[in-house]
């Protein structure tokens, strides 16, 4: 019986990689944390919060709070599969700079995003041609997937204070 | 030298809707947005030599002429057959290359193109600011209401026809071919029902 429990614990252990959420100095985007938590649960991956307001994400669904270091140094060290940003000016700056450093496109600003657990690919929906057309875009084979979400499209926040949160210093 | 980054945008009044294909097609040529016109007006007001940079296709000559009629001294049109598919990553790589090549110390870009502005900043080391935050060396984001562009007169349009449009192929800039490929895939499109 104990072996079965150990095996279950092993399977429940999140895989390396993970989902990162960048939280800029503006209003805490709790909806973004919730979306990241949703992706993390779907992929069996850790959810990292990074950025000026990362500490405040602890009660809203993050597993690990990253302190110090740049976004790039975090990405190079932990190789997240997905990095989520909201479309605030501060977050767009971080997303654009990271994208240019890594040679990656930004997907967004998206009004909806979903992850396929079998391919681990995020499909982001964006409005084009003045809202007359919707495009579904992915990052294809390129990682990390950098997703920018419209703030007003994020799911409502849900407090998650029961989670054990680990702090990481880069 | 001041470089104004000009992004061709779809003419939303000249679109075709294909219900069977579930997508929008651009019927006409692309146009210049009002915020870019304001950026050109700001550049003209600052004086000196003003250069426009368009990353587009050979069809964007009309935008170049418009920029010249609004007061630009010269326009570089970096053309590529797949330019409509270029995203911020590719556009910023091309813009950064042209900024280095021309030696521009001040770049004006419309404020709605935040991603491209910060990417160019990352690629060139130029800081990002606004018209009120100080001048070169910098990338200044210009809002639509910052400077009202004047309506080009008939004489402006005639003079614009004599000004220079420098045509460059994106393939000839010395960038690796891989640098012209966006790192994103459009998986599907669908129409939004009115």
Short description:
Chain A has 170 residues and is of the alpha/beta class. Chain A has one domain (15-154): HUPs (Rossmann fold, 3-Layer(aba) Sandwich), CATH 3.40.50.
Structure description:
The complex is a heterodimer of chains A (170) and B (194). Chain A contains four helices and ten strands, in the order αβαββαβαββββββ. Chain A is α/β, with parallel strands linked by helices. Chain A has a single domain, classed as Rossmann fold, CATH 3.40.50.620. In chain A, the strands form two sheets. Chain A has a seven-stranded parallel sheet. A three-stranded antiparallel sheet of chain A has the order 6-7-8. In chain A, strand 6 (112-116) and strand 7 form a beta hairpin. In chain B, the strands form three sheets. Chain B has a seven-stranded parallel sheet with strand order 9-10-8-1-6-7-11, with helices on both faces. The mean pLDDT of chain B is 94. Chain B contains five helices and twelve strands. The N and C termini of chain B lie far apart (46 Å). Chain B is globular, with a radius of gyration of 17 Å. At the A-B interface, helix 4, strand 7 and strand 8 of A face helix 3, helix 4 and strand 12 of B. Strand 8 (133-138) of chain A pairs antiparallel with strand 12 (185-191) of chain B, so a sheet runs across the interface.
